[in-house]
Please model this.
Amino acid sequence: MSKLICIEQVAEFLHDDMVVMFGGFLGIGTPEEIIQVMIDNGVSNITLIANDTSFVDKGVGRLIANRQVRKAIVSHIGTNPCTGKQMIANEIEVELVPQGTLIERIRCGGAGLGGFLTPTGIGTIVEKDKQKLVMGEKEYLLETPLRANVALLKAKKADRAGNLIYDKTARNFNPIIAMAADLVIAEVDEIVEIGTIDPDQVMTPGILVDKIICRGGC
Model:
């Protein structure tokens, strides 16, 4: 069965109350056309997992500005004033996670691990309500894994089997979130035939990708 779908078809995989992971760093490496579908269809009350909440008019920031996000699990919100304002007004829940901890929690979710130990956050607000363990006379926090219903990726190129190549730093979180969701959808700039991509260049193997959307149409 072909993994290729039209952008209009992606709406059937996106629904209210879902947990969704996005690739991207301040909007770089984020699937903008899929976000537009979410806005057009009014997908609401979502739990968003991403590196940051981008800008008001870019990336996942547009979902925040449109008040479609119930909770954001991110490492940074400073570039999107809408996030801070909604958080202060108790209109959105924000879980701030140190960046390295965030990506490792996602990696654990993809690898089927029960969590990991880190000293990051000891003695700060980050340790609130978390289990502490002492290993070799040093304190660690137990950080639990993160998974999502859907992971939404942005890649430069895909073959028809779903093998992906990213554009430089737009790679960022994309390969890791592809391992940590029940459904993985990639928005790509170019689709090529199977065998065209050198296996050594593949950054996300097609076995992890369920659906592919080519920007600008089928």
Remarks:
- The mean pLDDT is 95.
- Helices lie at 32-40, 61-65, 81-88, 99-111, 174-177.
- The longest strand covers residues 148-159.
- The chain has one domain: 4-214.
